[in-house]
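Hello again, I could really use a second opinion on something today. Take your time with it, there's no hurry, and the full record follows here:

___
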Amino acid sequence: MQQTRKKEYFVASNSHDGFCSYYEEVFKSTEYDRLFIIKGGSGTGKSYLMKYLCRKCEAIGADIEYIYCSSDPTSLDGAIIVKNGIRIGIIDGTAPHTRCTEYPGVIDELINLGVFWNSEELKASKKSIVALINEKRQCFTRAYDFLGICKSLYATHLKILTPIIDSSKIAEQISRMIGKTKPEQNPTETTRLISGRSMFGAYRFRTVENISKKTVIVSNDFSSATIYLSKLADYLRDKRQSFLRIASPDSPKICEGIYIPAMDTCYMCEDRRIVNCDSFKKINMRRFLHQDLLSKSRRELRMIEADIRRFENEAQECLKAAGRMHFELESIYSHAMDFTAKEKYSEHIAKRIITYLGN
């Protein structure tokens, strides 16, 4: 049984604040009936194992949320599997989102893929492994240095932009658009990311458009859409409405999308990567800008935006370099693995999970 509305997200990002992670929030042990924490080096098959387990659970009709690596969006870093009221989590417990057992045996369970590698073979490559890990770490450090400059530039940009935006007009428009709503008794606010800055470049999932009946695009003139979306989030909190908040990979404080389950509608920051963007309803942010104030600050805003792009591009080059080290490490570790034994163990884990789910 295949899911028709596949949910694919990131819960971490290479941000203006460095590595920003929501893993502790998303994979809080007490919110799961069982949480499997996978340990092992690059190339030991952590992602492959998770994908295998998800396929097995999909086949019995489980609802699955896929959590991908923010640096390598082809690699699965976690999954949330739900069926028959049972909630099971699987997570890559290695750096940079290192995780240990909090409630060992009763909720948390370790899966150590290190038992399937040949330590003697790895020992022969010790010098290369240590050098690659250190060089990869340095590449990420340089990337975060460049992104840190972007943080300062963005703060200046926001300081100039905020007085230009007519907040009262936005509030009136949001109130008319959402209309009268009945407060929910236990509203929930969930945070996820659908875009990221990876070792391959910028990446974006189509999850929110796929799960929504209706999509509304907020034009992003001078990066103003995020202010509108933040005010929409504030409005929903005030009205006690549940929503999914799509955080920006640049900062957890920046909102680039809102999905409202009660309306089955998402509001997304304009992005050229959104497929069929022209076919969606749009909110034009220019109507909320004081044009006289904008004309005085237009040059400064454009200059800062250009500088942000320049430093983000430099950070991206560092991440690509880190990627080269990462895949060299994967090659070394994969050659030292006994994948035949590991696959047999994978079958054992899959059977246990399916039993937990009541099948």
Summary: The CA atoms of residues 156 and 304 lie 8 Å apart. The chain has two domains: 7-117+338-356, 166-289.
